[in-house]
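Sanity check

After download, print the first record. It should look like this:
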Amino acid sequence: MDYYCSTKFTDLQVSVQSRLLYNCCKAYPERVDLHWLEKNPGRLFHTNTMIADRELMLEDKSCASCHHGCYKYEEQGLPSKRSQEQNRQFIPDTDAPLKNLQISLSTDCNMTCMYCGPEWSSSWQKDIKKNGAHELIGFKLDNDNFSDLWAKIKQKSRSTDSRFFDLFLKEIKLADGLESISILGGEPLLNNQLEAVIDVSGDKKISITTGLGVSHSRLSKLLKKIKNKRINFSVSGETTGKFFELIRYGTKWEDFKERVKMIEDNGHKISFISTISNLSVMGFSDFHDLYSNKHKISISCLTERAWMMPHVLDPRSKNDFINSTQAKHNLPLFNTILQMIKPNALDKDRINMRNYIDQFASRRSVDLSFIPKHFLDWCGNNPN
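Expected C-alpha cells:
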C-alpha cells in the first residue's frame, strides 16, 4: 500500500474554537500549545508532529493520524478522501510552505445535517444533550465520545480563545506561499469574527463553505460588507425538496434556493460541494439538473457515517439510479457515483441506517413517507 499523500505537505485545517490542528482535514488532530507557538512564530504549519508524519510518508510508512480518516477505508476497498482527491505531485520537503488553509471558527450552527455531528455543530450538541445519544450497533453518537481529544477540553475553554485567535491571525500574515483560505464552520456566516479573517487575508483566494443556514437579513448584511472582495461561496448541497430538508435539517429548500439567488445577484462566485450518501443518491440528479449549467459541482463520498455511505443502498434503488441517469453516465460525476454504489453493504450498516433514520426523524417529527418503502424495508430486518 502506498502511504504517501501530498495533501499532508500542503494543507492545514485549524479549529479556532478548540485550538485543534488537522493536517489534513481527515487526519487525527493535535492541540496547539500556545506557549510553543508564541516562541515559534510562523511554525503553526510545521509542528513537531506534522514533521514526523511527513517523514514517515516519505519513507512510505503509515502515520497513525491518517489511519482513521483514510487508510482504514482503503484497507476495506472503500473510497477515502485521499483516494478521491490525491494530488500525485511528490513533495520531498517536510518544511514545504503551507498552500491551502482551512479555518473552522466555531461549531456554532443552527442545522443538524444527518451526516454531521457534535464535533462540528452546536445544534447537534444541544440535540444530544436534550434527547440523549444515538444508539446503534457498535456505535454511539454522543457528546462525550465524538473525539477522545476534544472530550478532554473543558466546555469553558471551547469558546473562541482571543489569545489564540490573535496569534492565528499573525500566522496567516507570516505564511509565505499561502494561496487559498477556506472558512468553514459550523456555519461561518453566523460567526462575528468572519470579517476579521477576511480582512487579514489580503488578496489571497477566499472561499466560505456554508450550508446557508442563516436568515435572509443576515446574509444580505454580509453581502453588502464584502461587495468589494473576491470571495467564492462554496455551498453545501446535493439534493432537492424533502430529501434536502431531511439531510440538511434546519433549512427549508425554498429558502436555500432564495439565498443562492441572493449571492448570485450580488456577483459572487458560487460552487457546490455535494456529499454523496445513500439518501442523496436518490435526489442528486435533480440537484445537478438545477444548478450544473450555472455553477461548478464537485462531489465527495461520505465516509464519517458508515451506515450512510452511498453503497448502503438496496438493489432496486441502485438500479433506479443507474437507469434514470443513463444519459449522464458519460459525465465524470455520475461515473464516480456509479463506482461509489457498487460495493455490497454490510448487514450491520444496513440495520444501523434504519435505526438511525428512525431515531433522527422521531426527534424532529419528520414524516418519512417520501422515502421509497423498498429502501426502508431493506434497511430493516427484511433485506429482500
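If your output differs, re-run the checksum step. Summary of this record's structure: The first strand starts at residue 11 and ends at 15.
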